[in-house]
Design brief:
It is built from five helices and no strands. The protein is mostly helical.
C-alpha cells in the first residue's frame, strides 16, 4: 500500500515513504555528477551500482531498468 507524504508524516513512516518513492531523475543526475566529479570516470556498471538503491524499493529488476516518470 502506498501512502501520501502527509500520511507518512502522521504515521511516522517517512523512511518507508521515501524508500518507496525513490529518487527522481534530477536527483539521480545530481548523484551521478557528484560521483563523476569525485572520480572523473565511471563505467556504466558502476553508475548502475551507484543508482540501484536510489530507485523505488517496490520495483522488480525489469521495471527498474525501464523506469519512467509517471
Amino acid at each position: 500500500m502506498y501512502v501520501s507524504k502527509q500520511i507518512a508524516k502522521a504515521t511516522n513512516t517517512q523512511v518507508e515513504y521515501t524508500l518507496r518513492k525513490g529518487f527522481n531523475d534530477a536527483e539521480c543526475q545530481e548523484w551521478i555528477m557528484k560521483a563523476l566529479n569525485d572520480h572523473k570516470v565511471l563505467s556504466r556498471k558502476q553508475i548502475n551500482e551507484l543508482l540501484w538503491n536510489k530507485l523505488p524499493v517496490d520495483l522488480d529488476k525489469d521495471r527498474m531498468w525501464h523506469r519512467k516518470e509517471s
